[in-house]
Amino acid sequence: MESDVIYPAEEWTISTPEQQGIQSRLLVEMVQHISEYSFQMHSVLIVRNGNIVLDSYFWPLSSEIQHPVYSCTKSIMSALIGIAVDKGYIQSVNQPITDFFPNLAAGMDDLKKSITLEDVLMMASGLDCKDSYLYGWAGLYDMGASSDWAQYILDLPMVAPPGSKFEYCNGLSYLLSVIIQNATKMKTLDVAVKYLFEPLGIKDIIWPTSPQGVTVGWGKMQLKPHDMARFGWLYLNKGCWGGRQIVPSTWVQASTRRHIDAELFDHYGYQWWVDSAGYYMAVGYKGQRIFIIPEKDMVVVFTGNLTGSESLIPKQLLDSFIIPAVTSDNALPQNTADNSRLDEIVNNVAQEPTEPMAGITWASEAEGLAKDGLFLRTASPAFQFEYPSYSKKAEINIPGQVMKMKTPDDIDFSASIVDIPPGIKLDAFGPKIYAKNLETVGSNIEVISNKKISLKDGTSVYRTEITWLWKNSLPIKTILVTAYKNGKAVFVCAHPWKGTRPIEPIFQSLRFK
Q1: Helix (H/G/I), strand (E/B), else coil: 74
Q2: Which of 304, 326, 351 is the last residue of a domain?
Q3: What is the distance of C-alpha 111 from the center of its chain?
Q4: Same domain for 219 and 99?
Q5: Contact 462/451 with Cβ under 8 angstroms?
Q6: In what order do the strands lie in the sheet with 383-386?
Q7: Which residues 6+ apart lie within 8 Å of 490 measured at CB?
Q8: Rounded CA gap, 41 and 59, in Å?
Q9: Both 209 and 125 in a single domain?
């Protein structure tokens, strides 16, 4: 009964696995398996019967860090469409999309005019999208380089009748966000906060907008794993939260059942993947997952940096360890030994390794050591700066780089030391040297600003901002701070994208010795 359901307040209730009918032993084996094979897992969170029974984070990640959920965002978009239908902003999923884009309808043929909102929701528009991993996201880059993302998607040619063929398309999920904003006259993020996130107690959300001011419907959202679990728990309980219906139960049922056969996983609903085993899931790039397993009254959340075939690991862990660990609907006898083993390994994987490891040094400690959120170089020219402590080492790929790291939301930053180019003064390094080098990997390079600033240690540097297109398609912003020291040009740069965590503390903390 609904009255018996446990909902988290500010925090989730914590329980041992055995108290919720789960064997700790298999969870120990799972965390050991992840650690032994060095999978790039960031977290595993299991909620059963409204209680967290496993909350494991792999160094340097923690529960307080917002994590990119990538295409799990699409399932949240689905919930917002259901809310908009319930509140009368949208009539039904049978509406043709021309209702929402009347200014663009004139240029459409009859086949394209027959695309319905349901076709968009289930990735079966018939449009020749080509913006998924199968095509190297080529269409996504092309859309990003266009002057109007919605216009770009709606101008794509038709290759199949609407509703007949599944073709994963990020651009369609962007259209859902445009539809929400057109129908409600509110930004999609504001709709989400008012009708979804605030009722669930979700406060820390990052979700950027397109150049046209539309919330990015297909991804780029960042949430804490505990909040990902809140969303999953809402759906497990048919859209109800503490006695209040947030998402209509009929929408939860309709959106999470099979509507069309799909590639990658078995079936697709309305922006949800549906497994033949009886559960459904929000699926994001690099292993982000929200699994809802109604039969087990359980929600499982994964975050990570899993690429290629490793992105399938979360489902394998769910099927091989987590679901088999659920052996009873009632409490099992307490198992102190396995509970202690589980606590120990969860604590171990969360700690920075004590042994020397390549992940915190470059060349040598004198050349560069990253530890506890501080990068320190003692070799000449010596300098240091603070960085997000949850960042990981990245491969150096440019001559002169002495370090490179990446945050979980794919912001990379680096420090480089090169010879001072002959005849190039400090104020010209960013605009004339760095910007020129970008031409080897991109186009449309524009220096937005280039100004002299002083660091806290008194060093005069130039701060340069550059916008450009990577591979002639993906918009990038680069921030570069350059100093001349001991006959060398030293520059620290980062490539933030709109809506991410602030990267300025790196530059504000830079100082030379």
Answers
A1: helix
A2: 351
A3: 34
A4: yes
A5: yes
A6: 361-362, 364-371, 374-377, 383-386, 511-512
A7: 381, 383, 415, 416, 417, 482, 483, 484, 512
A8: 9
A9: yes
**Cis peptide leading into 60, omega within 30 of 0?**
yes
pLDDT, position 359: 47
Helix axes 336-350, 24-36, angle to 10 degrees: 30
Beta strands (DSSP E) in 225-337 are 240-241, 244-245, 260-261, 267-268, 273-274, 280-284, 288-293, 298-304
Of 319, 351, 383, the residue that ends a domain is 351
Angle 72-86/170-184 helices, nearest 10 degrees? 30
Pinpoint the alpha helices (H) of 291-374: 313-317, 323-325, 336-350
By C-alpha distance, which of 511, 285, 295, 290 is closest to 408? 285
For residue 479, the 8-state DSSP code is E
Domain co-membership, 378 together with 331: no
The greatest distance separating any two alpha carbons of the chain, rounded to the nearest whole angstrom, comes to 77
Mean pLDDT of 162-187: 97
In Å, how far are 80, 219, 262 from 259, measured between CA atoms? 19, 22, 9
Residue with more model confidence, 450 or 472: 450
CA distance 350 to 342: 12
CATH of the domain at 464: 3.40.1000.10
**Inter-residue contact 433 to 424 (CB < 8 Å):** yes
Question: Rounded to an integer, what is the distance from CA 476 to the centroid of its chain?
Answer: 17
Decide if 175 contacts 186 (C-beta within 8 A): no
- How buried is 397 (Cβ within 10 angstroms: 0-12 exposed, 13-18 middle, 19+ buried)? exposed
Q: What is the CA radius of gyration of the chain?
A: 25
**Statement: residue 2 has pLDDT above 60:** no
Please answer whether residues 294 and 235 qualify as being in contact, where contact means their C-beta atoms are separated by less than 8 angstroms. no
Looking at this protein, which amino acid is placed at residue 351? Q
| CB within 8 Å of 149: residues ≥ 6 apart | 143, 171, 174, 210, 211, 212, 214
- The helix or strand, by DSSP H or E, that contains position 480, with its residue range, turns out to be strand 474-485
DSSP designation for 421: P
Query: Are 265 and 123 members of one domain?
Result: yes
Q: Do 150 and 267 have their domain in common?
A: yes
Residues 144 and 179 in one domain: yes
| pTM for this entry | 0.86
CA distance 468 to 338: 54
- Tell whether the model's pLDDT for residue 354 goes beyond 70: no
Whether 109 and 136 map to the same domain: the answer is yes
* Domain hosting residue 48, numbered range: 12-64+284-351
**Helix or strand run (H / E) with residue 46:** strand 41-48
The tally of domains found in the chain comes to 3
CA 175 to chain centre: 19
